[in-house]
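Tokens in:
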């Protein structure tokens, strides 16, 4: 896997503009300059981390989805269970799954908090920069997972996070336990199940023996999206 800091330093400014609502348009020179400053400050503060784990998957006829430990794991049992219809559609035909969690660490949150006091405009740009950086880091970890899966003879479906479609945020608790997120990469959960640090992402990635050609950035960017029955909502 590539160095995390290098990856987030290469975050695409187009993505930052998209989070700011520019949708393909260029921002004016002053905003472009601010985007550059904010990306630099957020990158300097970041301490990215990632953890992932391959798991078993059982798709029940009644729609329940069970993600389990692998037979070779030290502790056996169910890691998470959900009846999400959106996830079930995405995982049709899958025979395993990865759980993943990534974070940019506490530093970017401190930058955003400082900016909130000094300049609300800067805070908004830092938030957008952080969201784009977290996605860039997620893509890199997702690539690593794809490579590992490919060595094992699997193809990967696009990652699917709690909060997409009807996949509930309550699953964050299961991610916390299954991936030991606090111990491994310092992610904890608030009472309302938000992750701290805030620039953190969890996701499930389905594994299939079919030769699917999923886009790393997911269904919205995929050229095969039309007519694909596994498409995310
Ligand atoms: S739309 Fe594309 S990325 Fe999404 S599941 Fe289908 S092939 Fe994969």
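Residues out:
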């Amino acid at each position: 896997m590539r160095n995390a800091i290098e990856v987030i330093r290469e975050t695409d400014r187009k993505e930052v503009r998209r989070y700011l609502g520019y949708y393909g348009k260029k921002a004016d020179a002053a905003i472009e300059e601010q985007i550059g400053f904010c990306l630099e400050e957020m990158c300097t503060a970041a301490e990215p981390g990632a953890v992932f784990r391959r798991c078993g998957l059982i798709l029940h006829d009644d729609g329940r989805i069970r993600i389990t430990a692998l037979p070779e794991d030290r502790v056996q049992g169910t890691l998470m269970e959900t009846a999400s219809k959106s996830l079930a559609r995405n995982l049709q035909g899958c025979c395993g799954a990865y759980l993943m969690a990534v974070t940019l660490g506490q530093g970017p949150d401190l930058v955003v908090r400082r900016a909130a006091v000094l300049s609300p405009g800067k805070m908004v740009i830092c938030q957008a920069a952080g969201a784009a950086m977290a996605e860039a880091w997620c893509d890199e970890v997702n690539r690593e997972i794809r490579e590992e899966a490919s060595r094992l003879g699997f193809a990967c479906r696009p990652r699917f996070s709690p909060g997409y479609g009807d996949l509930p945020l309550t699953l964050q608790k299961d991610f916390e336990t299954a991936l030991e997120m606090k111990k491994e990469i310092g992610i904890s959960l608030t009472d309302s199940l938000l992750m701290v640090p805030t620039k953190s992402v969890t996701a499930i990635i389905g594994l299939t023996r079919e030769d699917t050609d999923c886009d790393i950035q997911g269904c919205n960017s995929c050229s095969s999206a039309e007519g694909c029955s596994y498409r995310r909502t």
